[in-house]
């Protein structure tokens, strides 16, 4: 896993957008997994600016959702899809027909997870997975422990993840369960980009850098990935410099 330490969230946004842009320039119909959360917001802002300036080819870009709350319809404004559409997809000109979504409100959510994976395979696999990291080391909603073969599935959210997501639910109870792209789908991406920003992530970044890959820290499994990059800003970085981990 390559490590890139940048100064601040602005530099992180630029460096992450550069990687997305490179992938799209090489393959305009690339399938890209995109995350929700605060961390990628700067990257989305930068991508939207580049798109508005005519510098980012999104006309054929395809996107796959990373995760979704169970039982929440895609057109519910509190859905992660709704958040993604408002923050990134709409402003970037990515139309819904180019998004592989979870049917998280389907009567059989496990079948919906299989349909998601089938759609990803049918689309030729994931070219780039952009990921945030939970304070407990989760990727998407692959809570610890999640091994490399953990499939796309329904998961129980940890108390920590529910607390972290409470801001989006303005007083309503955060759902207890979610669906997530599995570790197998994430690790199967041809390229992976993990972003960490802010002092609240310094402890989990320290663990990520220090510990051997383990299901107890799902993000650490990216150390076995052939083309993974971790970008951290200084507030999230417990040491000095950059290099390989
Ligand atoms: C949620 C999402 C993750 C995201 C994480 C971190 O739990 N399911 O995909 O990476 O939050 O979010 P933030 O970037 O706001 O810290």
Write a brief caption for the model.
The protein has 245 residues and is α/β, with parallel strands linked by helices.
Description:
- The protein is an alpha/beta fold and 245 residues long.
- The protein has one domain: Rossmann fold, CATH 3.40.50.1360.
- The chain is 32% helix and 18% strand.
- The chain has seven helices and eleven strands.
- The chain has helices spanning 9-26, 41-52, 80-92, 109-122, 159-165, 183-187, 202-210, and strands at 2-6, 31-34, 62-65, 67-69, 99-100, 128-132, 153-156, 177-180, 192-196, 228-233, 243-244.
- The strands form two sheets. Strands 5-3-2-6-9-10-1-11 form an eight-stranded mixed sheet.
- Strand 2, helix 2 and strand 3 (62-65) form a beta-alpha-beta unit.
- Helix 1 crosses helix 2 and helix 2 runs parallel beside helix 3.
- The termini are close together.
- The model has no long low-confidence stretch (mean pLDDT 95).
- The structure holds 2-amino-2-deoxy-6-O-phosphono-alpha-D-glucopyranose.
- 2-amino-2-deoxy-6-O-phosphono-alpha-D-glucopyranose is lined by residues 35-39, 66-67, 132-134, 140-141, 161, 164-165.
User: Tally of extended strands?
Assistant: 11
CATH topology: Rossmann fold
Please state the overall shape, judged from the principal axes of the Cα atoms: globular
Overall mean pLDDT: 95
The computed structural class is alpha/beta
Instruction: Please give the CATH architecture.
Output: 3-Layer(aba) Sandwich
Largest sheet: 8 strands, mixed
Global Rg: 17 Å
CATH class: Alpha Beta
Uncertain runs with pLDDT below 50, 5 residues or more?
A: none
How many domains, as an integer?
1
Helix content: 25-40%
What small molecules accompany the polymer chains? 2-amino-2-deoxy-6-O-phosphono-alpha-D-glucopyranose
Helices and strands, in order, run as EHEHEEHEHEEHEHEHEE
**Order of strands across the main sheet:** 5-3-2-6-9-10-1-11
Total helical elements: 7
């Amino acid at each position: 896993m390559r490590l890139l330490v940048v100064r601040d969230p602005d530099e992180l946004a630029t460096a992450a957008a550069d990687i997305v842009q490179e992938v799209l320039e090489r393959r305009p119909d690339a399938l890209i997994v995109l995350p929700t959360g605060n961390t990628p917001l700067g990257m989305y802002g930068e991508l939207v600016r580049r798109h508005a300036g005519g510098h980012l080819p999104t006309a054929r870009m395809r996107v796959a959702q990373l995760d979704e709350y169970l039982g929440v319809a895609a057109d519910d404004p509190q859905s992660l899809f709704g958040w993604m559409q408002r923050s990134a997809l709409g402003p970037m000109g990515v139309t819904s027909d180019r998004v592989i979504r979870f049917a998280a409100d389907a009567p059989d959510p496990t079948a919906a997870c299989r349909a998601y994976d089938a759609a990803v395979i049918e689309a030729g696999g994931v070219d780039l997975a952009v990921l945030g990291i939970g304070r407990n080391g989760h990727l998407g909603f692959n809570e610890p422990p999640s091994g490399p073969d953990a499939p796309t599935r329904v998961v129980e959210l940890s108390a920590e993840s529910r607390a972290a997501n409470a801001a989006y639910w303005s007083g309503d109870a955060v759902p207890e369960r979610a669906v997530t792209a599995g570790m197998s789908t994430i690790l199967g991406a041809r390229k992976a980009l993990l972003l960490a920003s802010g002092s609240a992530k310094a402890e989990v970044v320290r663990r990520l850098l220090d510990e051997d890959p383990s299901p107890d820290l799902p993000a650490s499994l990216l150390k076995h990935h052939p083309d993974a990059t971790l970008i951290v800003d200084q507030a999230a970085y417990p040491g000095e410099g950059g290099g390989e981990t």
